[in-house]
Specification:
Blueprint lengths: L6 H4 L2 H12 L11 H6 L6 H12 L6 H8 L6 H5 L6 H15 L4 H14 L2 H14 L5 H6 L17 E5 L5 H4 L2 H12 L2 E5 L8 H5 L3 H20 L5 E3 L2 H7 L2 H4 L7 H10 E3 H7 L1 H8 L10 E4 L3 H6 L5 H8 L3 E2 L15 H4 L1 H16 L5 E4 L2 H8 L6 E3 H9 L2
This protein binds iron/sulfur cluster (SF4) (2 copies).
C-alpha cells in the first residue's frame, strides 16, 4: 500500500512504525473473513481492512470523527486478522497508534469519559476491584437476573501456596482482577511448578500490568503501570529469576511487549526488553518440562481418560502470543478427550472491558462461543485467561476453569 504520511507524524517513531506496517498491507481483504465484528456487522469499516484504511487517512492528515472512533472502539483487538494476514501486517500495533491519535482529537462525552476512567481505576486496582466485587456478591441475591449474571458468585479459596524453596525460581504476575475472581489459579501454578522443582515467587508491589488501562486508550497511564511493575520485579530479576510466568494470557500478551512499549524511554528501555525476554505463558513453562510432567502424572492418567473437555483458546494466547495448539496438545497427551470447538479462532467477546463498553456485540459473540464450546457435549470448559473465564462462566452451567487448576489436581497424587 502506498503511503504519504503527514508531517506531524512522519518522522516520529510511531509514524515510522505505522508507515512500515501500512506498506505491507496489499488490501486483499483475507483478514475480513476471520474478523468477528465484520462477521456480525458486515460493514467494511468494522473489519480490519477498513480500519486500516481509516487509520491511514488519519496518519495522512485527515481529521478523525466520532464515527471513526466508533469503528475503532468496536474492534476487539483480538488480532485474529494478524493470524490470517498473508503479508504479516501487525494490525494490533497499528491500531494502538491510530486509537491514540483519535483519542487525542475526538472528545468523548463527559459520561462516557467518566465511565471509562472509573473502569480503568477500578479494574486495574486489585484491592479496590476485590472490595467492590465482594459488595456486589453480597447484593447478588437481590439483583435482577441480567445484572446478577454479570457478578460472579464468590470463588473457592486458593489452595495452599507451597513453602519449599528450590534453586530454580520464577516470578509470577499476581495481576489485578484474577486474585479476586479466581484466587486458586496462581496457587495451582505454584503447586504444579513446585512438583517440577521450581519456586514461584510473587512481587506484591507489581500490581496491574497495564493491559486494561492500555486497552481503554489511556496509554500514558498504562506505561506508568508498566514502569511500576518493572520496578517491583527488577530485584527478583537481578537475583536470578529465570522467567516471569503469566497465568492470564491477556496480561501475558501485554507484558511480552513491554520492550516495545517502553523502547523510547531511556530509563526503562533495557529493563523492559529484559522483561520481554523473560516473560512466558504458563503453558510454555509446562511444555518445556514435558518429561518431568509426564512422570508426575502418568500414575494418575486413568483419572482423566475419557473426560470430555472443551478448550477455549483466548485470542491473547492464539493470536496475540501466537501460542496456538500448545495447551490442547498438553491436555490431549494427559488423557483428556478434547471436544471439537467450531470457529475456535473467534473471540468470545470478553476482550478486556469490551463486554462492558460494547455489550450487544459482546453478548452475541458470547452466545456463539458458548454454543460452539457446548456443541461437543463436554463436562468442563478449560481456558487460559481470567477475562474469558469469567465472561464464559456467566453464560453457561458448565464449570469454566483455568487449565492449570485441572493439571494441579491431576499431578497432586
Ligand atoms: S491486513 Fe493483511 S489480510 Fe488484511 S487486507 Fe491487508 S494484507 Fe490483506
Ligand atoms: S483485532 Fe479482531 S476485531 Fe479488530 S479488526 Fe482484527 S479481527 Fe477484527
Amino acid at each position: 500500500m502506498q503511503t504519504n504520511l503527514a508531517s506531524f507524524i512522519k518522522d516520529t517513531p510511531e509514524g515510522k512504525e505505522a508507515d512500515s506496517i501500512l506498506r505491507k498491507c496489499v488490501h486483499c481483504g483475507f483478514c475480513n473473513a476471520t474478523c468477528p465484528t465484520y462477521q456480525l456487522l458486515g460493514d467494511e469499516l468494522d473489519g480490519p481492512r477498513g480500519r486500516i484504511y481509516l487509520i491511514k487517512q488519519i496518519l495522512e492528515g485527515s481529521s478523525p470523527s466520532a464515527k471513526t472512533q466508533l469503528h475503532l472502539d468496536r474492534c476487539l483487538t483480538c488480532r485474529a486478522c494478524e493470524t490470517t494476514c498473508p503479508s504479516g501486517v501487525q494490525y494490533g500495533r497499528l491500531a494502538d497508534i491510530g486509537r491514540n491519535l483519535v483519542e487525542q482529537r475526538v472528545a468523548r462525552g463527559p459520561v462516557e469519559s467518566a465511565w471509562r476512567g472509573a473502569l480503568s481505576a477500578v479494574i486495574s486496582n486489585g484491592s479496590l476491584f476485590g472490595s467492590l466485587l465482594k459488595l456486589g456478591q453480597l447484593a447478588r441475591p437481590l439483583l435482577p437476573p441480567a445484572l446478577k449474571r454479570k457478578i460472579p458468585p464468590a470463588a473457592a479459596a486458593a489452595k495452599p501456596w507451597p513453602t519449599a524453596v528450590h534453586a530454580r525460581k520464577m516470578l509470577v504476575l499476581d495481576g489485578c482482577a484474577q486474585p479476586s475472581l479466581s484466587p486458586n489459579t496462581n496457587a495451582a501454578a505454584a503447586r504444579v511448578l513446585d512438583r517440577l522443582g521450581i519456586t514461584l515467587v510473587r512481587a506484591p508491589d507489581a500490581g496491574c500490568c497495564g493491559a486494561v488501562t492500555f486497552h481503554l486508550n489511556r496509554q500514558e497511564a498504562a506505561l506508568d503501570s508498566m514502569r511500576r511493575t518493572i520496578d517491583a520485579w527488577w530485584p527478583h530479576i537481578e537475583s536470578g529469576a529465570e522467567a516471569i510466568v503469566m497465568t492470564a494470557s491477556g496480561c501475558g500478551v501485554t507484558v511480552k511487549e513491554y520492550g516495545h512499549y517502553l523502547a523510547h524511554d531511556p530509563a526503562y528501555a533495557a529493563k523492559a526488553q529484559r522483561v520481554t525476554e523473560l516473560t512466558k505463558d504458563i503453558s510454555e513453562i509446562i511444555l518445556a518440562e514435558g518429561a518431568k510432567l509426564r512422570a508426575l502424572v502418568t500414575r494418575h492418567s486413568s483419572h482423566v481418560t475419557g473426560q470430555r473437555i472443551a478448550f477455549h483458546s483466548p485470542c491473547s494466547l492464539q493470536h496475540g502470543m501466537k501460542l496456538k495448539g500448545g495447551v490442547e496438545k498438553l491436555l490431549t497427551d494427559l488423557g483428556y478427550e478434547l471436544t471439537s470447538v467450531p470457529d475456535a479462532h473467534l473471540c468470545c467477546g470478553s476482550a478486556g472491558t469490551y463486554s462492558i463498553l460494547q455489550p450487544e456485540l459482546s453478548r452475541r459473540l458470547q452466545e456463539n462461543k458458548i454454543a460452539a464450546l457446548e456443541s461437543g457435549a463436554p463436562t468442563t470448559i478449560l481456558t487460559a485467561n481470567i477475562g474469558c473465564q469469567a465472561h464464559l462462566q456467566s453464560a453457561t452451567a458448565l464449570p469454566v476453569r483455568h487449565w492449570i487448576e485441572a493439571l494441579d489436581e491431576l499431578s497432586a497424587g
